[in-house]
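Field guide to reading this record: the first block holds the primary sequence, the second block holds the structure written as discrete tokens, and the final block holds curator observations. Each block starts with its own label. This record concerns Methicillin resistance protein, catalogued under organism Leuconostoc citreum.

BLOCK 1 — SEQUENCE
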Amino acid sequence: MAILDLNDAEKVTAYQEFVRRDPRGQVTQDPLWGELKSNWGHVYVYHETNGRIDAVLSVLTVEAVTGKLLGYAGRGPIADIDDIDLIKSMIEEALTALPDNVFLIRMDPEVPYTPARNTAYQNAGFVTRNRDITHMHGNIQPRKNVVLYYDGRGEGAKPITNEDDLMLHFKRDYRNQIRRAAKDGVTVTSGDSEADVRAFFETYVMMATAQSITHRPIDYFLRMQKLWQGTGLFKVFLAHFEGHVVASGIGFSYGDEIWYMYAGSDRRYAKHYGPYAVQWHMLQWGLALGKVAYDFGGVGDFVPTDGLYKFKHGFAYHDPHAEYIGELDWVLDDSAYQMYLEQFS
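BLOCK 2 — STRUCTURE
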């Protein structure tokens, strides 16, 4: 077990290659994510077997209670999550390098919830936050996601090996809407340039304004673009109609999945189905890369009345619901932890 020395270029490369290529890999465990979160501290832990990295825990820190730091391992660790002794030893290693005022190490790995796994972590001294949280934003990351599985899971699903299979995987009206977008002249481009990000941002702000929700600043996405440009792991998809960008999406390719992370749309052009065209092309990207899964991101609940679920489910209505384990909290200062939780009540 060791702390990553960011001045050791060879070891940093090995760490990143593991995070990017391991089937369980997540962009939020890449040290580049720590660079993106420029106002957060960072510590990166790795475990080796026979000289090869086989587990990592990337912990970013930020003041979440006055004078106290939250240590957050977003979608981490990348490891055998059921090897709790290994996970605890990685946390202990991280704590040797973290400031003394860290009150919590929080992990939320993208692994399924099971009662047995939940109980095992509780018995090992963790506080778990999953089914007791009844609203989507009660966790840092949504715990319920819509996922399309290219390998054909769920009732009526078949392995998706080509674009025809992919199209047939969708609901009939979604297929019609994708075809309608093309018939209307909607075209989709993809890239990782600054211009792509700026075009995305315009639709992103439009969507946030229409839904009365907050949004990240443009500088956040420009940093993202500069950090990942040329890696092939990051793409911006833009739907164009008559000279206007009418919809957009940002995706990351890590491990065995595509993670659809951000989106935007111009409601003035809703009848041309730009968001459906964007999804079609992003899903083709995952197919071309041989991915196992395409993660549409979180929903409030798996019910038709949930707006996010209603849109996403039409692409993945064959697929089983993805309910993740949620937050696994290693509490170091209970009074600070209780103050922190009050923000989510």
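BLOCK 3 — OBSERVATIONS
The chain has a mean pLDDT of 96.
Residues 194-211 form the longest helix (18 residues).
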